Amino acid sequence: MKNIKLFEEFANESKILLTANGQDDFSRTLYKGNNGKKYVDVDGVPHTMSREGEPESPLRLEYEIKGTPSNPAAKHNYMMLSRLQQDCEYFLGNGNRSEKNLWAGNVDAQIKEMKRLWNILQEKPEWLSMEEILDYEEKMKATK
To answer: Which residues lie across from 63 on neighbouring strands?
Structure first.
C-alpha cells in the first residue's frame, strides 16, 4: 500500500524545478524541489534523499535545475566570469580603454578567457550570453 501511495504521489508531478541549496558533508550539491522535497546530486544525477540525508534512488521524473551551482569549481567560474565582465564595463567606461585595468592584461586574452569560462559552464548564466561577449569584443577592439 505504501508503494502505491508513493507512485501516485510521483505520477501527479510533471516537471520538478530544483534549486541549488548548499552542500552536504561529502561536498555533494543539495537541491530543494518546487514540491518541497530535498534532493542530492550523486555523480551529476539528482537522487531522492532519506530522512537521514542519504541518497536513495535517482530522480526518474523530468527536472530542471535553477540557480548557481554550489560546487566550488563551477561557483568560481561564475564569479570569475562576472569579474571579467565588470572589467570590460570599466574598460569601456571610466577605465579610458586602458588594458592595464583588464584582469588578463589585454583585450584578446580577456575575451578569450571569457569565452572559455562561458563554454565550460554547464548552466549558462542568465546575465551574460555569448552574443554579449562577442559584443564586448567588438566594442573593445574598436578604436575611438
So the answer is: 16
Strand, coil or helix: 14: coil
E strands within the chain? 15-23, 29-33, 38-42, 45-49, 55-58, 62-66
Cα-based angle 72, 78, 109 (whole degrees, multiple of 5): 115
The DSSP code sequence of 79-112 is HHHHHHHHHHHHHHTTTTT-GGGSTTSSHHHHHH
Instruction: Quote the CA–CA distance of 58 and 105 in Å, as a whole number.
Output: 45
In contact, 135 and 89? CB cutoff 8 Å: no
Per-residue pLDDT of the chain (144 residues; tens, 9 = 90+): 455 444 444 455 578 998 887 778 887 888 899 998 999 988 778 999 998 889 999 988 888 887 655 567 788 888 899 999 999 999 999 999 999 999 999 999 999 999 999 888 888 888 899 999 999 999 999 975
Query: What does the alpha-carbon distance between residue 36 and residue 66 come to, in Å, rounded to a whole number?
Result: 15
Residue 124 in grid coordinates: 549558462
